[in-house]
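Protocol step 4 of 6: record predicted structures for both targets in the notebook before any analysis. Target 1:
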Amino acid sequence: MKHLIDPMDLSVQEINELLDLADDIISHKERYAKVCEGKKLATLFFEPSTRTRLSFEAAMMELGGNVLGFSSADSSSSTKGESVGDTVKVVSCYADIIAMRHPKEGAPYLASLKSDAPIINAGDGGHNHPTQTLTDLLTIRREKGQLSDITIGFCGDLKFGRTVHSLIKALSRYDHIHYVMISPEELEIPEYIREEVFEKKSLSYEQVRTIDEVIGKLDILYMTRVQKERFFNEADYIRLKDTYILDMPKLKAAKEDLSILHPLPRVNEIAVEVDDDPRACYFKQALNGKYVRMALIMKLLGLEA
């Protein structure tokens, strides 16, 4: 593992090893407090981010390392016309590992061709967000004890949601998973996911229009935001938007051990009242992101506790 650009860069064995390491970090935090002493992480965020950038920075600090970087393109030399490749080449002289977010799809991959330090893709446009996928996998495994024999529902914007696409592809390598796709017609899962993942691998899946008709059989519900701007007209949005808001009345029919996930940020697709329900896992999910990034940093740097 020289770089991590796409979650599919990792084998199932490598994913399981990363999740095992993250679990051990959670159980023995003190053992890992000085693993990255003397090491530096550069966070190159060419577009704004709150959770992902701070999660990477917290991860490196808790490993005993240091952090440098920038949080928007406006504070980088890209405003002077410097290429991403040159920026990364120079920064890799100063840092041992780089976490990079960029609005253009494929930019972290191009950066990896120039960098002398490992590159972690922290999100490239609508393409990939591999550390979010690892976060989701860790959360599912910690909540359910496994990554197989589950029924998972994806709800909301399934057409444009990079986190949904990446997680489906990652889970497709595990056994006996039933996928339930909950969305309006306008935001259905893309045809390429249907053809290249579900149908090519003969996976069990279904497409429905409401949460109510399937919530009782779900082990995991992965919520995403239905965005007004994705609809062709406002009337359709107004007609459908409340259908995809998870609230306590909808949860009455759910299993007692349902796990509710969300990549965040949340707007109004999960009612605040749900936060106090023990089935709400999205803030634990955000915390898990820090631990899985700690594990990833260690793996890419070849470090052990």
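Target 2:
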Amino acid sequence: MNKSMIAAILALSSPILFAAAAFPETISWSWNEGRGGYLFALIFVVAELVGLQIVVSKRRLLAVVPMAAAAIAYLASLEYGLRDYIVESASYFDVQLIYSWTWLWDFVMMAAFMVAGLTIFFGKRWIRIAPAAPIFLAGTAIILSLDAFFPYDTLGPLQYVVPYFIEANVWLVGALDLGTAIAHDNVMLLRGDHGSMALQVFWPSAGVHSIIIFSLVIGAFMLKMNIARRRKAVYFVIGIVGTVLVNLIRIFSLSWYALKVTTDPVAWEEYHKIAGEIMFLPWLFGFILVIVAVESRRLKKLEAASPKSN
């Protein structure tokens, strides 16, 4: 990899690295309470750009540096009053979920910076060269905006699938004889080793947001892969099914925690904050790695077979 590409990666990564170093407490894995998604955007940037032999001119690199500095300045200014202003502005837009509203702007800013930076480096080709990070960031921003403006179960289409997830979970709890579980619409009543607990599940907690983000990221990733459309469709369907299964595992793990570990609301909420993203994000990245590995092996076999066929 040439030095100019290393410099380009560092320029694009610098705001994320700054956030992780200066404000490590904000790198939370709860999807609407921190910047944990920044680290996965960083992984996407590095994974997609490492190894490219494209030479980025010094002029383009220098054009991105002030933008990176502006992004860093934004992150720093949040600690000196800007976040308070954002919180206060929520009332003007009738926003009920303050966390989603405040973190929304972090992801909007970083997505805009990534798109601008990649456009300067690669022009319109960026959508085929390195789409995953900006689309992941933008997708997260979209989901946070939906959660901010349509909290809980007010967004009917996304809430529609939740009762089916809950019914499947109740069946699994009963099949494994872990305790008592009863479902009513989007409410689960659980009784286990430590007493009873009622869980009301809304679409973000059910992982519906992860299905949307997965669809956006994997769709963009498929654009850059030079494989047949049928194979792309197969990968996409397998990925969606896998994401649904990951979300079912997440809901089951939350139920198991209440049934077998604790019904203390504070302790349970701490687990709930990290359970979703700590399962979904590794699955997303791992699935992409599997696709790359499978297609690379397939390409090598085709290349090895072609001389024989001639």
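Step 5 preliminary note on target 2. The CA atoms of residues 163 and 172 lie 14 Å apart. The two ends are 33 Å apart (CA to CA).
Proceed to step 6 after PI sign-off.
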